[in-house]
Amino acid sequence: PFVCVATNMGSGKPRGLRAARKLRTHRREERWADKSYKKSNLGFSLKANPMGGTSHAKGIVLEKIGIESKQPNSAVRKCVRVQLVKNGKKIAAFVPMDGCLNYIEENDEVLIAGFGRKGHAVGDIPGVRFKVVKVSGVALVALYREKREKPRS
């Protein structure tokens, strides 16, 4: 009687003792078809990121701006245009907490951090991916709670 021994014929993959290199190189080439793998390994996201992969960056305030929130909300969110010191890129950064825009003047040095969604805008503020953390070396929270005063410059 005829007995079929090979159960994995026609599977399309090379199998056997000396097939490892072929399998490995094929996998390496085909991984580039995976969108998330490509995104993390090509390095374009790092190039496009104004912060250049860092968590914080210093910048100079160019102007204070009010950005209208998205529907269905109606508000003017207080933001600042900042030019980063390290690469000269201009970004918009949100100024958190009530009335904190009063502590920030033009040409002040501010410390910028991400807004918590890894490069995405947060909530109803369109196109703003960063927030202000410090002004002239003093934390914005300390100014808001009146623990410290802004240095005269």
SSE topology:
Layout: H1 20-30, H2 35-42, H3 44-48, E1 56-68, E2 76-84, E3 90-94, E4 109-114, E5 130-135, E6 138-139, H4 140-144
Parallel strand pairs: 3-5
Antiparallel strand pairs: 1-2, 1-4, 2-3, 4-5, 5-6
Structural overview:
With 153 residues, the chain is an alpha+beta fold. Helix content is 19%, strand content 27%. The protein contains four helices and six strands, in the order H-H-H-E-E-E-E-E-E-H. It has helices at 20-30, 35-42, 44-48, 140-144, and strands at 56-68, 76-84, 90-94, 109-114, 130-135, 138-139. A five-stranded mixed β-barrel has the order 1-2-3-5-4. It is elongated and about 95 Å long. The model has no long low-confidence stretch (mean pLDDT 93).
| Helical content (DSSP H or I, runs of 4+) | 10-25%
Using only CA atoms, what is the Rg?
26 Å
Provide the low-confidence segments as ranges: none
Estimate the strand proportion. Answer: 25-35%
Strand order, main sheet: write it out.
1-2-3-5-4
Termini, distance in Å?
Answer: 97 Å
What integer is the average pLDDT? 93
Find the structural class using helix and strand composition: alpha+beta
Shape: elongated
Largest sheet, described in full?
Answer: 5 strands, mixed, barrel
Q: What is the β-strand count?
A: 6
What's the tally of helices?
Answer: 4
Order of helices and strands: HHHEEEEEEH
